[in-house]
Amino acid sequence: MAAETSPKRVVQPEISEAEDGRMILNIGPQHPSTHGVLRVLAKVAGETIEEAECDIGYLHRGVEKLIETKRYYQGMTYTDRTDYTAAPANNLGYILAVEKLLGIENEIPDRAHYLRMIVMELARIYGHLIWIGTHALDMGAMSMFLYAFREREKISGLFEEGCGARLTTNFFRVGGVGRHDDPPGWLEHVQEFAETFTVEEFDTLLTDNELYKSRTKGVGIISTEDAISIGLTGPSLRGSGVEWDLRRHRPYARYNEIDYKIPVFTEGDVYARYMVRLNELYQSRSMIAQCVERARDLRGEPANANLADVVWPEIERVSGWQPDKRSGDMEAMINHFKLVIEGYKPPAGDAYFGVESPKGELGFYFVSDGSGIPYRCHIRSPSFVNLSSLKQLVEGGLMADLVACIGSIDIVLGEVDR
Amino acid sequence: MVDGWDIVILAIKGLVVLALLALAPMIFVLAERKILGRIQARVGPNRVGPRGYLQTFADAMKLGAKEDLIPPGGDKLIFWLAPLFMAVPAATSLSVLPIGPEVEIGRTIGLWVTDLNVGVLLILAMGSLAAYGPVMSGWSSNSKYAHFGALRSSAQVISYEISLGLAVLAVLMYAGSFSLVDIVNSQKQMWHIVPQILGFFIFAASAVAETNRPPFDLPEAETEIVAGYHVEYSGMRWAMFFLAEYANMFVASMLVTILYLGGWNGWTIPGLEGIMGVMWTLLKAFFFIFVYFWLRAVLPRLRYDQLMGFCWKILLPAGVLNLFLVAILRTIWS
Amino acid sequence: MSDLACTWLGLMATIFGLGTVLLRSPVHSALSLVMVVFHVAGLFVLMGAGFLAALQVIVYAGAIIVLFLFTMMLLNLEQHDNEPHMHRYQKWLGFPLGGALLIEATWIALAQANPSETLLGKYSPERLSELGGTAFGIADAMFTSYLLPFEVAGVLLLAASVAALSLARKPDEDIMKAMPDMVSDAAGSMTQPSVQESKLNQSPTERGDNH
Amino acid sequence: MPFGTGIIKGMAKVLGIGSREPVTYHYPENPRPVAERFRGMVGMRRDEVTDLLSCVGCGLCETACPNEVIHIDTSQAEDGTRWVERYEFDLGRCIYCYLCIEACPVDALQVTHAYHTLTPDRSELVISSEEMMEMWESQDRFLFERYWNE
Amino acid sequence: MQKGMTVLQAANSIGIDIPTLCNHEILDPVGACRMCVVEIQPGPPRPTASCTTPATDGMEVKTNTDSMQKTRRQTIELLLQHHPLDCPYCDQSGTCELQDETFGQNIWQSPFETVSKAFPEENLNEVIMINHNRCILCYRCVRVCDEQMGVHALDVAERGGRSFIVSAQHKFMDCERCGMCIEVCPVGAVLSRPFKHVARAFQTLTSETTCPHCSVGCSLQLESRKGEVLRARARPVKEPNRGILCNKGFFGWEHVNHPNRIHAPMIRRAGNLVEVGWQEALNHVAERFLAIAELDGADTIGAIGSGNLTVEDNYALQRLMRGSIGTNNLYLGRNGYEVAASTIETALGSEALYNNQDQLLNSDVCLVIGGDINGSHNVLSAHLKSATRKGLTRIIAVTRVDSAIDPFASLSLRIKPGSESTFLTALTSDADEEFENLTGITKEQLSEVQKALEDSTSSSVVWDTGIWTFGREKNIAAAACRMSKKFGSLLFPLPDKANIVGGIKAGMAPNRLPGGCSVSNQHARSLIESKWQTAIPSEPGKPMDDFLASAKAIYIAGEDIISSSNNPAAVRDCLDRASFVVVQETFMNATTEYADVVLPGSTSAEKTGHFVNFEGAELSVKAAIAGIGKAREDWEISARIAAKLGADFGYRKSVGLWDEFTELSQDHSVTPTGAIPTINGRMQIPTVEFPYHLVTETHLFTGQPDLRLGTTMHDLYEAAAEVNELDSHQMGVQDGDRAMIRTEHGEFELPVRVSSVVPRGVVFIADHLSEAPVLTLNHNGPDGMPVGVKKVVVK
Question: Which of B17, E250, E361, E709 could be joined to E387 by an S-S link, Cβ 3.0–4.6 Å?
Fold first, then answer.
């Protein structure tokens, strides 16, 4: 039969060339420096951008809706793919929100927390490195990109060693870290990385570089008030002089038990945001070292909570299964089965949990109807909020500033569109 | 008078220039990729041929085999002509560059195709013609990015032409001739860089800008306007832009060598002046080309207004100042 | 050989000259003009005036016609196709004036016993080689016998460019609106100090940054 | 600091980095060694006793998979036992989350270190249990070698 | 809290969950598993099973104390001690109640050393098997078979810890194959053989729908996966079936994904049906209809719907015909129910037609007349048995062959086929002399029935209208009406298809508009006309036979009118003569051979709509899978053709049609005239040549012809002429011999089976079997015909 023709809804950009004869330049969605498939419609007068408008949605995959069709443990695989530059940070946000929903926050063993923090801070470095690399590349300094990736590879290697995946980690499990307990030697390798990670290189190459400074200082200024009213979080907010860091101000895991500083710069320009991130690299490096020490002290303790209705049983107890002889544990088998096919069922209710991802406050909001599948999932993605400041940043600036500004707010389109 | 040998020698020289035009970019591209790779903690091309040395040949073949796209809505004739306007001036410039002293092989042969008495001017003229390629290609592509690139490029070329000219003028004052051979010969005692260090930097900066190379690569700034004026080109036509860029780089490097670094003047083994001269010239030129790569590896790009400001507010006054100083020096010393 | 070259160059210059006038696309016309300049430069070279040829290319082809092209491309002249190309009296003035020019030239050519000598003036090749090349010849002429006209011309040009700038700066001029700042940038962005530009001056001086 | 020192420092630094060994791995002749936990393509254990599939077709992997990668059809064998008629694994859809391996109650699905999915034909990415067992046995270069040498 | 509730029910009613294993909502409590233990104050200080303890006032019940939890955990741990590690391939895992309880009790590790039992799996019959290792001895299967189905095919052997479930008969369990034991089993002990290892229960999609097999309209869940219907389950517990199913509902779904389904539209070209695209087929149909309507008049066009289609399907078809083409020639196939219904309506009014099942089960006397409703409406029969068991009603079974309800009947009589109306008439008036001869029932027995009816405060008459289709449906309806007048009996004519009632209500009759109003009703017509924006003819359509004889274009949806006709040759002639025949079907059949266009319709598992059952209750049908191949829902096809004819219904989902239907259905209380037609025609007496009566009924293991193509149903019952053992001697045939079945109108060959349920003088041939074309035997309906059986000697 004839295919039903549904009326096509085309969203027209608000600005057009017809009005006053100014040229509209389509920057993106396929453009080298839009960090994905962002499309910026810029009304330009010569090189000056008079008006800019973002058009997003080119990478929309309906992650929230997908999560709403999957059991809780499956949903996490999609969070790897929102902010793919720092997947473990998303994993952690997801896991913590689900744990809050289940009401088991206090059951998580210390060691799991420290392992999570190690991975989280590695992810922060991971995310900031790709930011520094691409931002510098946008500015034309191409070597930075490769140096950043060189360091990033090492972290990829650490992720791979820890959980098996380099990019889309799916690292943690509700109740702990699942099977991804630290393998032998991993903590030592992390320690080694923390000792050899050379932030100073980036410092030398960009911080003092006159050309870089001239490109970034005084460009894309966003005032403290504007930053707060837009809802900026993370380094973008701290670059505008607000000391706000969820790790400190709404502590989770064991962040209140280690020492670190929160870098804050007041200028609110691209350079200040760069300096915040650069300093966070130093901070994360020292945090990793501290966490590794704690995790080592806790060796031998469990890394998963002892909750039969949430944590998957050890596979050895299940897979002792043989068709003829009975060596597995029936109870473990049944728990395993129920956990796989139905998943844990949080009580009806809702929970929000925000973590400090490399890009800002990454929050997961769940509504549970008591079944094994979330009734509603919402992701408060920092990139999306940060992107909404772009208009303010670039209007009145030059084309080249646009590139610097897009870079400076650190967006990942996977997270913006979700 | 002109005899048969002269024609043969001229033909050989012409062939050498043609070969240079074709080969130098290939070598430079490979060198650039290798050097950049090494600087960036990687190895660069390493697949085609031994250690990747034939990579550019493979690329050239690939480009030759690619489809030649002509964007709709553009001016086909001009789109077709634009790459020629890029490549021909570059090739012409090559023909007046002397790469070594006169040598005696049965007869006296200058290691240059032709020694024009207005050689410097010819190169400047060709350099100013380089504005046509971007303008024509950018306009005929019917693309906004290409248009941006074209405007940026021609503005940049015209502007930096002036500071370049001012710097060259100072050298000409010293050398007292437009002929490149004469200029080199005038540096037997002292390279021009010594009295004209300011002029050298002005010339070097302007040369980088003239060739649209980082950190002055605004016309083709990849992260801003994608590829600038040649964004719509493909295949061999694009290769001609590419070729012209590297040929221009070579010309600029040679020019720096000839104007400031004494050309083939340098320590030489008696009897081998010719070879040593060529070696010195190329060595100096290659060093300058290496500096090109080096800059590309490290520096962020300038912003457009900063670029123009740099030219008009710093280089131009400095050029005038340099001219003034050189004039005084010249007057005093002579 | 040189006769052949001369004929060829002259012929091509004429053809491209006609093209300049007759081609419908202004961009093509401008490019034809560039070709005319080249061929005329070639004629100069044939006459031994290499310096002049180079200057011709640098100044006309490299700067002036580029600006022509520039303006044409930016103004999108295609839309003026329907308008009459000529001024009302242009046609009626053009033919007589062109005819007068032709007659003049013919008259000069025929009136002199040795026309080439007349055309060469006082700077014959021998004289030029004596001076050390066409550059010296021109310099000699410019800074000795024609100093005053040269300086006057310089002052006039300066005045004209200042006038052009002040005209172009008029904010309510329609054409300025349609034309991006690029043109004035090309003409020299010093005329247009912007907020961003001032930062370039700051950054070098502001070396000891507060971070 | 005078103007340009930052640039010069940077240029010097870059030369310093350039003087070190490159970090490149020459893939594929000399690929990067992978960690023990590396999540490559999913393999399947061959049962030591029966020399057959060790999968019992319980469908847990199919259920746990968030991306509908696995398709299992089962039926009754003649003796009434469960018979896995078809086990298909679509590598083209796989996101390597390894939930299937965690879900397998009989350890039939196995970690392999194979990660080359080089093929000109998408349908070749749908691999059967036979190929999965082959992959588990050979551990690497499964789809890759087929096309690399051509 | 109602009186008589147990503690468990009381707790559940106020939302307190007490875990149970052996308890099931459709079964009586037994207290076998001890999962539901609670502490009761005042009372003995021990855990008490809440499922068997009646709730009383002042009871203080603690359900979740530590000691109770511990008891439950231990119960499960003990159950799991012997449980095999079968979860990976047990068909029940995912829906297993033992798993649920274990998981719910948060048991982490087994405290005992585990010991496996190693009984082999045992096949009880063709469809049911049992795995004793997994059994937790809750006796649900035994109880459901006994209590609900009244079959008692399962029992418990041995005692205590060694007890296990066995077939009550022999090793082979020859039961009704209703599958309820599979359904209620909490673990994977009693298993369905067709479903075994086919799919995992947790991967299937379920949809709640209504069974299409008979007019009870059982509510059930269909489980499907990857577009394939895998099995049915009797949940949730709902009217009208109250959580039980018969074998048709449970196993009769294999027709949905049968490979012989029609997958694409076809047009006959040069004598062959050629697959075409939908647009082409629909355009062709619309063009041809238009052309014929113009040439021969709309009166020569008509449509035949089916009781297998939903209300929406029939409604859409009649709207297409009435609205877009302008004809009232609409029929619902061979429709005995319609005759019976209009007889009752005229005599007693329309309220008398639809009575609630509850009224039937609670009436003092329930007279089951004629056909074996255990075969045709098994769930209703099970409910009757269950009600008898509880003492709610008394069954008087007056059937032609032995029936499974006989053991539950207080009086069970065998009646000669065709004499049912005589018997019923005799109940209300005096019996004449021929009575005993005709019916085979003595006058004493008759007066016993009369007495029982007279003594009762309420009584019901149940009969199956499918078995008297050709002419006698009016007689029995008239006789039943008289009974109703005399004894106040409620009448339960049971239609022979799931949605006959709905089909008539949808307006699929030549003289009725949607809702049941007469076509000549001006008010109803104008209402419909204003809704449809078109005029509809005011004249009723022709009778079906007249129409067929003069038809130029026929649209047949879901009905094999040749096989279901009493005169197939005549119908064949008619179809041959008609210039354009559209058949909308799911399977190729005799009628499709005459089709010019075949359109792939869908089965009830693929569509959404409503059925109306014998009670007049509207039951929703929901699609479990998308249409097979290019098959579309039948209403959609009609709607598309209407759109091609220029009148778009404007609905994308069937719910729009349903709303329109309910909006247009007018109350049409027919004033009863009280006129009961007289009974005419008598049963035919056997002769020497044809000495037996032929009985053709719906057997338990047969169903609607196109719904029984699946292998399971087909294998259960092989076509045969069932005869009494004594008769077989007389005929000179033995079990398994092939015999020629003859009447004066026709004959065919069939194997003979000696059966204990068939009384003397009767040859039983199940209806709806393609191997046994019983309809060819008589123009006026084969039922009760004198028939001869002669052994075929194989040469």
Answer: E361
Closest C-alpha to A170, from D100, D42, D34:
D100
- Are B and A neighbours with ≥3 CB pairs closer than 8 A? yes
Positions of E strands within E3-45 = 37-41
Best residue in D3, D24, D26 for a mutation probing chain B (most B CBs within 10 Å) = D24
Residues within 8 A of C (CB atoms), D 1-40 only: 1-3, 5
Sorted by where each starts, the structural domains of chain C and their CATH numbers stand as 1-79 (1.20.120.1200)
Between CA A218 and CA A226 the distance in angstroms is: 16
Residue B324 φ/ψ, nearest 5 degrees: -60, -50
* CB spacing of E200 vs D75 below 8 angstroms: no
The three-state DSSP-derived secondary structure of A102-171 is HCCHHHCCHHHHHHHHHHHHHHHHHHHHHHHHHHHHHHCCHHHHHHHHHHHHHHHHHHHHHHCCCCCCCC
Instruction: Name the phi and psi angles at A379, rounded to 5.
Output: -110, 120
The beta-carbon neighbor of A217 closest among C178, C185, C203 is C203
Q: List Cβ neighbours of A239 (8 Å cut-off, separation of 6 or more).
A: A265, A267, A268, A269, A272, A273, A274, A275, A276
Identify all chain A residues contacting C182, using CB atoms and an 8 Å cutoff.
Answer: 46-47
**In B213-315, which residue ranges form alpha helices assigned H by DSSP?**
222-225, 235-259, 273-298, 304-309
| N- to C-terminal Cα separation, chain C | 72
pLDDT in tens, chain A (418 residues): 444 444 444 455 555 555 566 778 888 787 777 777 888 888 887 778 888 888 888 888 888 999 999 899 888 888 888 888 888 899 999 999 999 998 888 888 888 899 999 999 999 999 999 888 888 888 888 888 888 888 888 898 888 888 888 888 888 888 888 888 888 888 888 988 888 888 888 888 888 888 888 888 888 888 888 888 888 888 888 888 888 888 888 888 888 888 888 899 888 888 899 999 999 999 998 899 898 988 888 888 888 888 888 888 877 777 765 555 556 788 888 888 888 888 888 889 899 999 999 988 999 999 999 888 999 999 998 988 888 888 888 888 888 888 888 888 888 888 888 8
Candidate from B223, B303, B306 with C-beta closest to A33? B223
Q: SS3 for E279-316, per residue?
A: HHHHHHHHHHHHHHHHHHCHHHEEEECCCCCCHHHHHH
Judge whether A47 is closer than 8 Å to chain C, CB to CB: yes
* Contacts with C207 from chain A: Cβ below 8 Å: 210
Pair type for strands D82-90 and A23-27 = unpaired
D47 touches chain E (CB under 8 A): no
Question: What sign for the dihedral angle of Cα C123, C126, C131, C132?
Answer: positive
Chain A residues in contact with C204 by the CB 8 A cut-off are: 210
Cα–Cα distance for residue pair D3/D8, rounded to 1 Å: 10
Asked whether the beta carbons of C63 and B132 are under 8 A apart, the reply is: no
Cβ(A27)–Cβ(A58) under 8 Å? no
Minimal Cα–Cα distance from D22 to chain B, Å?
4
Minimal-distance CA residue of chain B relative to D11: B298
- Residue A179 burial (CB < 10 Å; 0-12/13-18/19+)? middle
Contact partners for chain A, using 3 or more CB pairs closer than 8 A, are B, C, D, E
Cα(E658)–Cα(E664) distance, integer angstroms: 10
Would you call C172 an interface residue with chain A, using a CB distance cutoff of 8 Å?
no
pTM: 0.80
D149 inside 8 A of chain C by CB: no
Interface test with A, best of E87, E106, E205, E599 (most A CBs within 10 A): E87
CB contact under 8 A, C211 and A397: no
CB spacing of A318 vs D105 below 8 angstroms? yes
